[in-house]
Amino acid sequence: MKSLFSRVLLSVAGTLLIVSVQAEGLKPNEVVPVLGGEAYSKVARVSSEPGVLVYRYVRENETFEDWTTAATYILFRQPEVGDRPKSVAAGIVSGLQSINPQAQYNLTGNEAGTKVFLDFLTWPVDKEFMEYNVYRLEAGASGEGVYALQISVKFPYVANMSESQLKEVVSLRNALIKQTDQYNMKSVKKMLSDRYSAVK
Predict the structure, then answer these.
(1) Could you give the angle at which helices 163-182 and 4-15 cross, rounded to 10 degrees?
(2) What is the β-pairing status of strands 105-109 and 69-76?
(3) From the CB of residue 88, how many other CB atoms can be counted at a distance below 10 Å?
(4) Distance CA 22, CA 158 (A)
(5) Were both Cys, which of 52, 63, 131, 175 would link to 13 (CB 3.0–4.6 Å)?
(6) Which of 114, 156, 109 is nearest to 134 (CA)?
(7) Cα–Cα dist 168/195, whole Å
(8) Cα–chain-centroid distance for residue 198?
(9) 3-state class of 112 per DSSP?
(10) Of 53, 21, 35, residue with least CA distance to 188
(11) Buried b / exposed e across 43-80, counting CB within 10 Å, b at 16+?
(12) Half-sphere exposure of residue 61, counting CA atoms within 13 Å on the CB side?
């Protein structure tokens, strides 16, 4: 019988699919991610620092405090990062290392630096769970800032992963990166730009 750890990872890695809706004048509840054939229709604006707009999506039967998989759309419009995805990634990595110095991360992207992928496995101090995160960070047009798609998956903490568990994490990583790379960000960018102007 597969462990809970295995079931969570295999389920997500094997069936992850994200779809965005194309429409004019989009609102957060109209750009709904679909993961594993399930619409993540519960959405909330997350409190953030000035110049950052964040919307998180979770399953209808989960809460924003206790979720297993979440999709997050983010717009960074801060002078210190400008339109540079690598600057945003550096800030995320700095925050990650201050919270969990043991967390390892991977950073890849195109030569121009206009699209960057950041992924990492981390866990809280109490080791209540592990969380795998994949970010797609993409430059907008000049002056628009940086747009991001973040997919996060939580699963039980494992102190010493077996070889098979490590392979499952690698499979999860590969599936998440593939799906975030294929994601159509057009509607997400429009929604975030419209909302940023509305809530500024």
Answers:
(1) 30
(2) unpaired
(3) 27
(4) 40
(5) 175
(6) 109
(7) 37
(8) 23
(9) coil
(10) 21
(11) beeeeeeeebbbbbbbbeeeeeeebbbbbbbbbbbeee
(12) 1
Secondary structure class of 74 (helix, strand, coil): strand
Structure tokens at 48: 């953030």
Q: What confidence tens digit (pLDDT) does each residue in 129-188 have?
A: 999 999 999 998 888 999 999 999 999 999 999 999 999 999 999 999 988 998 889 999
Cα first-last separation, the chain: 51
Task: Specify whether the CB–CB gap between 146 and 174 falls below 8 A.
Answer: no
Q: What is the DSSP string of 130-178?
A: EEEEEEEEEE-STTS-EEEEEEEEEE---SS--HHHHHHHHHHHHHHHH
Q: Could you tell me the pTM of the whole model?
A: 0.86
